[in-house]
Amino acid sequence: MMRIPQKIPQISTFCQVWVSSVVRRGPSACWSFPPGTRYSVTTSKQWSIAKFAEEEELKKNRGNVHFQEIHKAIKGRELIKDVLEQKREILLERKNVLVQDLRDRRTKVRERMEEVIEKENIMTIPNLLCVMRGVLAPYLGYVIIQEDFTFAIGLLVAAGISDLLDGFIARNWPSQMSKAGSFLDPMADKLLMGSLVISLSYCSLLPIWLTATILFRDVFLIGAGFIIRYKSLPPPKTLSRYFDVTHATAQLAPTFISKVNTVVQLVAVATSLGAPVWDYVDHPMLHGLWYVTGATTVAAAVSYLMAKDTYKIFRKRPGN
Q: Which pairs with CB-CB distance under 8 Å and at least 24 residues apart come from 271-275?
């Protein structure tokens, strides 16, 4: 009788496992058993679990590597974004600084150009005559107080001639016309008239009420002139620029009733000054002239309040 070797059952088990592995995992599985392994169903299952765990671990490692790469990419993008944001803020700050610097330079250039444009020659003959008339005013008042009425009449005539002459020269020679003259001429007239009425009232040759009316009107006009100067002066508003007569910013335009009042005042003052010389003090006609002078003085003050074209500002302030 033939005896069957004892290893045949082991070989049969091996074949079954081998066939099962080929069917499940492909031809390469037949060489997957490590050398020296006892081939059994239990061994095959353990090996399959170990292989599956190894593959899962490999997948997990690959996933971790991929996640790390994505994380690095995100961090890189955030870093680049932060750098770009910082650069943008720096550029915006530099832009603001440059824009502000350009605005400051433009403002300075504009002010210098305006100063150059508005500067004018004030050393003209009409302006010199106005200054001389203004300087003559207090001396004329002193002569009247000393009751030297004849000499005072001569000085008043000279002042009147200078007033007519400066207007004639300014109108006929454009090079002698200046915007500062529109302030100097009425200012000299106000000084002359103020000195005359105060000194005549001191000598009882002019009523106090008329003197007060004329002085009130002149003070009102002088104050209005200072206000107009302040309003028309462009920034920076400093004392040196405010009192710089070569920096013309506005021009006065007297009303018609104001011109009539100036003539009436001169006539009334000259007539009152000549009263003690030609002996008609307290004459009724003289009193009538005083009332007419007072009425035209009040009307002239009201006309400056009602009229809108009594002064002209040469340009608007920046920003208006």
A: 272/200, 272/205, 272/206, 273/144, 273/149, 273/152, 273/153, 273/156, 273/196, 273/200, 273/205, 274/149, 274/153, 275/205
Query: Which of 218, 223, 227, 185 minimizes the C-alpha distance to 313?
Result: 227
Tokens of 212: 């007060």
- Give me the residue spans of the domains in the chain: 52-109, 121-306
C-beta separation of 273 from 203 below 8 A: no
pLDDT at 178: 73
- Angle (nearest 5°) at CA 225 between 221 and 226: 120
Which amino acid is present at 147? E
Residue 41 confidence (pLDDT) above 60:
no
Helices (H), the chain: 8-25, 41-118, 125-145, 149-172, 181-202, 208-232, 239-242, 256-278, 284-306
pTM for this entry: 0.57
**Exposure letters 156-189 (e unless 16+ CB within 10 A, then b):** beebeebbeebeebbeeeeebbbbbbbbbbbbbb
Please give the structure tokens belonging to residue 174: 């454009």
Asked if 297 and 265 touch (Cβ cutoff 8 Å), the reply is yes
Report the top-level CATH class of 121-306: mainly alpha
Q: Are 241 and 297 in contact (CB under 8 A)?
A: no
Region 200-217 average pLDDT = 92
